[in-house]
Design brief:
- One of its GO terms (molecular function) is metallocarboxypeptidase activity.
- This protein is α/β, with parallel strands linked by helices and 384 residues long.
- 28% of the residues lie in helices and 27% in strands.
- The protein folds into two domains: 3-292, Zn peptidases (Aminopeptidase, 3-Layer(aba) Sandwich); 294-380, Urease, subunit C, domain 1.
- It has an eight-stranded mixed β-sheet with strand order 1-2-4-3-5-9-7-8, with helices on both faces. Strands 13-12-11-14 form a four-stranded mixed β-sheet, with no helix packed on it.
- Helix 7 links the parallel strand 7 (177-180) and strand 8 (216-218).
- Helix 1 (3-13) packs across helix 9, helix 3 packs across helix 9 and helix 7 (192-208) packs across helix 9.
- The chain starts with a helix and ends with a strand.
Length: 384
Amino acid sequence: MEITDLQLLFKKYKESSLFHRYITNEKITHLLSKLETYAKVKIVGKSVLENDIYTIKIGTGSKRILMWSQMHGNESTTTKAIFDFLNVCISNNSITNDILDNCTLCIIPILNPDGAEAYTRVNANDVDLNRDAQQRTQPESDILRKVFNEFKPHFCHNLHGQRTIFSAGNTNKSATVSFLAPAQDEACTVTPTRKIAMEIIAEMNSFLQKIIPEQVGVYDDAFNINCVGDTFQSENIPTILFEAGHFHKDYARDKTRELIFISYITSLLYIANTDVDGSNYGAYFDIPENKKLFFDVIIRNARLDESDRETIDLAFQFEERLQDDRIIFVPILKNIEILSNNFAHKEIDAKGAVVSSIDNKMLEVGYENVFVKLNNEKIALFSK
């Protein structure tokens, strides 16, 4: 299977009704109805605000894989890629037929529908579901655990999205896709279970490097038993954390969506056709660990006032906000200092000029606006 084959599959079967960052139950209901001819779609419970939580079960194979997305409501890229993948599954394609003949998939497309609707990380009770694996204080946590217990998966795919701040190691390469084989004990022992997860991640990385060289990262594996991935791994179920990150100028996460789609197929096809025993886990350690080195915008060599003798750097991070059922990006000034060890997705060289607010006031940390003034000219920090 060539990488170009997967790219063509994505282009052909991309679900056009899902786009940008705001994905809710309302936007997937018609897709679930379409799937009912080919898969078992079931309401498995209700959220805090009584929104439905669904599972999609598809495939007839003996290897069981549990996948859940939007545990954090504002992390929707992996959900879009789920429906792209399912479109291939119901098209009688030989690649996905191979997966479905050997595997049975149980997919929760949106675990946190209240958070998805409000576009927040947490649920309606302000709880991070990924820190509720042990206490299970929330109905969504109970539902995931119930599905896990009943389905008895052999593998788990824990699907998330990450911020634009991450680099793939100490480099100026953005971590566009990241993974983790979570620890299952305080010592972060490389157990047989983790080796299996690592081997699958290494397989995905080998494909992704052909498209985004040096832009794949892994997370620190510090153990936290309250996290769902760590909990399931500690119960000896190989669990993989997927993180959809930032590709250059891709704030809608369309390119990343394609990369996650490719990761789904490569991981599932590998599981389908391989008796994964962890013996090929070593390449996992070739993937660099994520670092927080990126801002969205850095204006370099700037002065805040005409009297300043020295120049500094101005670092802006975008805050995602829900406005009229769409996500907008608001630049916020986070740092005013020399940032020689940091990078940005967009850099502007002020060349010693004064940078001010659009009403000619001196910039301060916390300033928020899409525009600044540079040489008395209005400059956009964010553009579509």
